[in-house]
Amino acid sequence: MAINNPNLPNFSPAVESQGGIGTAPVSHVAHGHGEHDEHEHHDQHWMWKYVFSQDHKQIAKQFLITGMLWAIIGGLLSSLFRLQLGWPEGTMEWLKPVLGHWVEAGKLNPEFYLALVTMHGTIMVFFVLTAGLSGTFSNFLIPLQVGARDMASGFMNMLSYWFFFLSSVVMFASLFLETGPAAAGWTIYPPLSALPQAIPGSGMGMTMWLVSMALFIVSQLLGGVNYVTTVINLRTRGMSMSKLPLTIWAFFLTAILGILSFPVLFSAALLLIFDRSFGTSFFLSDIYIAGQALPNQGGSPVLFQHLFWFLGHPEVYIVIMPAMGMVSEVLATNARKPIFGYRAMIGSLIGISLLSFVVWAHHMFVTGMNPFLGSVFMFLTLIIAVPSGVKVFNWLATLWRGNIRFTAAMLFAIGFVSLFISGGLTGIILGNATLDIQMHNTYFVVAHFHLVMGSSAFFGLFAGVYHWFPKMFGRMMDEKLGYIHFWLTFAGVYLVFMPMHYVGIAGFPRRYYAWTGFDAFSQFADMNKFISVAAILAFFAQFIFIINFFYSIFRGRRATENPWNSTTLEWTTPIEPGHGNWPGEIPAVYRWPYDYSKPGSEADFIPQTVPYSQTQSSNLPYEKDMGE
Amino acid sequence: MAHDVSLQSTGTATLDAPRTGTWDGGNEPFKASYGKLMMWFFLLSDAFTFAAFLTTYGLIRHKHAVFTGEAKDFVFNTAYWPIPDHVFNAFPGLHGVNLPLAFVALMTMILIFSSVTMVLAVEAGHRMDKADVQKWLLWTILFGATFISSQAWEWSHFIHGTEAGTTMADGTVFHGANLAANQYGPVLFADLFFFITGFHGTHVFSGVCLLIWCFIATTNGTFHKRGHYEMIEKIGLYWHFVDLVWVFVFTFFYLV
Ligand code: HEM
Ligand SMILES: [Cu+2]
Predict the structure, then answer these.
(1) Interchain contact, B59 vs A266, CB within 8 Å
(2) CA-based Rg of chain B, rounded to a whole angstrom?
(3) Which residues of B touch A293 (CB under 8 A)?
(4) Cα separations in angstroms, B251 against B57, B236, B256
(5) How far away, in angstroms, is A360 Cα from ligand 1 center?
(6) Spans of all domains in chain B
């Protein structure tokens, strides 16, 4: 354990935060925020406590565990298609017992290959990195860090999980369809997705994909409005917007992005459902199938792409911003330094959020869109590098000369920064329309977004789990296993995705089932094998984490109240907070969340609940004068 | 706490007390309960759903040819987008009379009136005047239901079409409209009409259901016991939003 800090602070916490810590739970009458009487279940049936719980902490765990199950499924699917790409001549006969008729004569069925990449993308982007990541940590941390008993509406929060659950069930069931799950890519472009007769996966699989996504969007909205209102209305006394931890800012803006962009996907999905099932022509025109003209006239498939990417681009930030917030928090805590440029960090999050709505067409440079429009989108896209750069610079400056404790969470946070830089640089290349026309739909794009979004967000997720595990389960995760997990994953990710840039520049296309028929690509046989080996090893390394996770829930070392010597509010709750979070009154907040190693202070951190009157020696001039 | 006296609402802080300004936590900065905020955010997202549909309408319409001749010479043809005046010119009970947009104007008026009665219901709720709340809710429900019925008539007329019909590209004569063909113009004209007015109509219908529920709860005294009629305010927000959206739908389909 890297924590051996002799400077445990000996402040008496602010009078108010004393409340009844350690005393019997006080009734919720003391609750400052109105109508929460519906939370008053004391001796609840286990059903209400663990299954249909309205406690945000329990709901967070439900999101996390469901997300982990999805991550295993998503990872397994990718291992399957990596087998196909790495060993094009190999036999898959041994998988027949599992895959049944999807293996034909020892080969993966090509249609099934498309279904695999589609489901892998859908699962990872939406079910793991949106619901599993933001669902988990927005739920867990918002009430705890703003100082609230629970989310604004515990009931809607519960519904949010159960809609996600239903959506998961539908998507999972679609994997077992005779005709296979959806196979039009995670971006489900029509006409492929709009014509049920186009490929097997465009039939029932696509229908279930759309139903599942509709449920998923409902879940996102229920969660999103809850997160936003909780941050606005339920902050504890003293917790102004400029005293919020960066995690909360990130979750807040993420929720707003979701509220504004998911409905547009909903619109697109609804229009697509009509095209598929009711004979409309919104996205269809001039289509011939086997020489036969379809009657649909006048629609536009490019319109679908506009609608999809109006969600799709903000969606990538919905995935990454929670990770950014958590990484900021973990870096500052473990570097024992205030985050560098707190206000710039908030400003850049806001900048990214705004810009993310005006760059969507950079995914469409090759659609035949007006080149002038393309250059406008190119310009706006490249501007995103500015706030992204601000963030990276501030993370590095936070680490600079810090008193770094290399906890597992810290390693993953640093790993996040590294991956975000590597993947962000290729974003700038792709953002140039002239270069993208060459690079579009090659493995270069795959490499870009797997580093900058896929892997980074996973690293943020891991950092979050290692860091907040003691608050979630009252026990610590094993640090040694954490180190092993980190190094294997970190090395694995670079070994998988770096070579993809190389083959991508050479034109190697994405979503191709077989590449052996192209002379130009046969030279990449070894490279593909290498990537596949690394990918499968990196995937199996994740079981170290899973074992560590479940083992520690039951057998981990018991946590103390504030194991990382952190300043934020969640660490002022009892080790395993009950429903309502604080047994006594909710503490008030006096200072920002980053008073680490403050000059003049004896302790190397000052919790947000400590009033300035107790820290005369370290108060800055303007803090000294406050109120005088 | 010893320093409670210093908890003034000026927003300044002493060394010993948290700040207490509008955005300093421990209160509702927009002076709105969480429920109302949630309704606002929901409406914001719903606005984006509608915006996506109306953008779709705009782009698809832009893609189609327009009729270039004199408005009086206009005839239906699948080759160009129709002029709304010629499509929506019927009035219930006045068979064969040419009244461009008269009926839809009436529908719009009814919906706008329902917003007024909604405001009055909310206002009565503030006064805790149960009888008045009931009265104005009933009027709102009535106007809402009338709007939906009118829309049903409008749809039915649109679907059945004119007696003359239109000769289609393949030489057959087609009357009225469905999702795959229509006598008024390109397929997408009717597709969009059904889809967008239908989506809006579904919203009105949900609104009427919610209002009926509010009416029952008011009658049972649920809100009175609760001490406030905030639920009606929240549903009222929704209702005004749906009316506002109609103004846009109306503009897109009937005016431009
Ligand atoms: C400097 C910032 C960035 C720029 C300029 C940028 C630019 C681009 C461009 C132009 C493409 C389209 C490539 C193509 O399809 O031909 C792309 C794809 C993508 N980017 Fe980025 N990007 C940036 C950062 C990010 C971040 C932060 C994320 C996620 C957290 C992300 C996620 C993605 C994803 C998922 C795709 C591929 C979607 C698909 O086609 O399946 N990008 N990026
Ligand atoms: Cu993008």
Answers:
(1) no
(2) 25
(3) none
(4) 12, 23, 6
(5) 10
(6) 35-255
**Buried/exposed A266-300: b ≥16 CB within 10 Å, e otherwise:** bbbbbbbbbbbeebbbbbbbebeeeeeeeebbbbb
3-state secondary structure of A108: strand
pLDDT in tens, B31-79: 999 999 999 999 999 999 999 999 999 999 999 999 988 888 889 988 8
Pocket test for ligand 1, best of A430, A432, A435, A508 (most atoms within 8 A of CB): A430
Tell me the ipTM for this assembly.
Answer: 0.92
At residue A142, does pLDDT exceed 80? yes
Q: Tokens representing A58?
A: 């329990």
> CA angle at residue A390 from A385 to A393, to 5 degrees?
115
Protein fold of B35-255: Four Helix Bundle (Hemerythrin (Met), subunit A) (1.20.120)
Q: Is the pLDDT of residue A338 over 80?
A: yes
Min Cα distance B158 → chain A (Å) is 17
Average pLDDT over residues A83-97: 90
**pLDDT above 60: residue B85:** yes
Name residues contacting ligand 1 (CB within 6 A). A 187, 316, 319-320, 362-363, 381, 384-385, 388, 424, 427-428, 430-431, 436, 439-440, 445, 448-449, 452-453
Question: Is there a contact between B183 and B164 (Cβ–Cβ < 8 Å)?
Answer: no
Looking up tokens 């109302």 gives B36
Q: What is the DSSP letter of A13?
A: P
Q: How far apart are CA A559 and CA A571, in angstroms?
A: 11
Mean pLDDT for the stretch of residues B78-100: 87
